[in-house]
Design brief:
The protein is mostly helical and about 550 residues long. About 45% of the residues lie in helices and about 5% in strands. It has one domain: Alpha/alpha barrel (Glycosyltransferase), CATH 1.50.10.10.
Amino acid sequence: MSVRGVGSGARAPINSTAPRAGLRTAAHAQHKHQPTNQPTKPPTPRAKAQHRGFVPMARPVSSSTAKAMSVVVVALLLAASSSAVLAVHDYGDALRKSILFFEGQRSGRLPPTQRLRWRQDSAIHDGADAGVDLTGGYYDAGDNVKFGFPMAFTATLISWGLIDFGRSFGAHESDARAALRWATDYLLKATSTPGVVYVQVGDASRDHACWERPEDMDTPRTVYKVDASHPGSDVAAETAAALAAASIVFREGGGDPGYAARLLERAVEVFAFADAHRGAYSGSLRDAVCPCYCDYDGYQDELLWGAAWLHRASRRREYREYIKRNEVALGASVSINEFGWDNKHAGINVLISKEVLMGKDEYFRSFRENADNFICSLLPGISGHPQIQYSPGGLLFKVGNSNMQHVTSLSFLLLAYSNYLSHADARVSCGSGASAASPVQLRRVAKRQVDYILGDNPLRMSYMVGYGPRYPLRIHHRASSLPSVSAHPARIGCKAGAAYYGSPRPNPNLLVGAVVGGPSNSTDAFPDARAVFQQSEPTTYINAPLLALLAYFSQHPDPAQH
């Protein structure tokens, strides 16, 4: 038994080949992306990066220089906030590509509509040793493991974007729904056994010791689960949130009401399990999920998050009462400047604030106050929070790995909140002595971050693969960096892939739409190097919140319009 608790018509294929260029090499490195609101724990030996020939970064700046830089950044961002210049980017094209990225992350048997044809079927027996079908779903990043926690968060964020901005997706809405359904179909499989949530497929340590295509992988496809004896309220409640949010997407807009009902019913069951058997999944499965996706912030926020989405999807009074009753106990106002796969606090407050701003529920007024405080912490010239900074080029950054996950998720919350404020004809109050911020200001800050990703930055580099004239060529991604099966039919073994990993050549397969981790400090620097995974690795949860941003700005390129 390999299950572990504790102890629409065919589309034209895309076969792109990246141009060739040279770069200094670096040795094999592993990942993952730890949140930044908690002290970073030392990585295990397998996860520790060991660089050889690393591209040097700029020296740390002095405190006086840093202060001068911050003044410049504020000036740049405020200038952007005061201008009404129409966008020059093709946000619609970027949206199409950002959705396409998810096809490159697919696991399982690929459908006839698959457009990234250099990918083929993979992991088609996942779960078989445990007597359960766990095929499908997404690889989270540049490896071949299926991590349930970030996959569920990815689904929740795609859903939220479609719920609030679905009309802006236009012709791309059906593809976005297909990307969402690829995740939710898997999550339904992972929750098909009552009282059990299957949370991971693949031994991360063994997988990260290899550099091989998903089509070739021969590392153990170990199945990990949480249950009553080995709780995982965080991953279970996030899964419930994903299913509940997706049920709204498929229920509305002439979708699939039968599928929506199934999603909501399952969400109710999974949330009840998460609440009844409380505990963090990294306590039950530490050796399997750490250091990759440890729960550093506890499970409490996911319980509130799951309840909030169930309330929005079902309108059942029990979830409204649950939220209010547990607001203090589960820490609704804690660490509200953070939002990502591990910390949902800011998202909880923004999501629930809609009820207040729409005049539907004064019961939740405290959540709006928390949301206002969070939004103010992001605004240049107002924010004094040490974890919210802007680079000289205007990029919001937080110390740690994979900075673009913060850029896209926090920018999405700015856009969502601006939407709620606009409909309520309201503004954000940033405390005594501070001027209130308008919804237009929030949208301008969000748009500035999107434009930075697409190329409006000091390097004039798009951080989305395949968008613009210059973009990363050597991303940290196994399938993209190794020859496709059609180009190289013979198997490429675990260690044989190291030659491709260390090659200075660009990746042979273009993972169109992938947004990499990007600059990770105040210098706006970016080494286009495969080994620097902190900056060169894409993830599903970087792209997920970006979809709605691109959709919105494709229809409203001037932030002053709404």
